[in-house]
Amino acid sequence: MRIRNIVGVDEMLKGNSYFIDTLDNGSVDWQAVFNNNNPIHLEIGMGKGQFLKTLAERNTDINYVGMDKSKELLWKSCKLLDDTKLLNIKITNQRAENLELIFPSSGVERIYLNFSDPWPKDRHYKRRLTHNGFLQRYKNVLVSKGEIHFKTDGLALFEFSLEEVKQMKGIELKEVNFDLHKEEPIDNVMTEYEEKFVNMGKAIYKFIAVVE
What does the alpha-carbon distance between residue 66 and residue 68 come to, in Å, rounded to a whole number? Predict the structure, then answer.
């Protein structure tokens, strides 16, 4: 997805109450940020923020953190959140490679990976967010019995991801669904991409993996 540059986006983000700058500040005391000890759920690659906003509205006893490397998308998320009074959601400008810097201890209870870049070329396989190098990072920041929720419209990426999880020690598959919307769970929250793909008649693939 091509994102148009927004003039002055850095300053606009820093002036927004939902934004936490972790590129400059590194690790974060999330309990102090949210002023409570509620569970933390994290979305990596949050896009325009619809998915996480919906979850935060439905579950006020859970703290949500959204990560994205695109400042323009983060700003779109900020604008979406500005019309709410949510106290249980923050967003930050960070990459998955640096996950352990902003969550130095294993305090995350759930990680969402929604319609991540498939990096289809074979030579780019290590960039896929379900490559074992990333799975190890997720394992390091998740609590015991913490979960990874992965959704995609790409069968090749899904099959690759399943094999990566199966080969990863300390992470086990809990659920695998090759057509999520055939019998859609009542608690499913759709992203912008998911709505688009479902309307096109495409299958959505999902798995849940659990840290032992």
Answer: 7
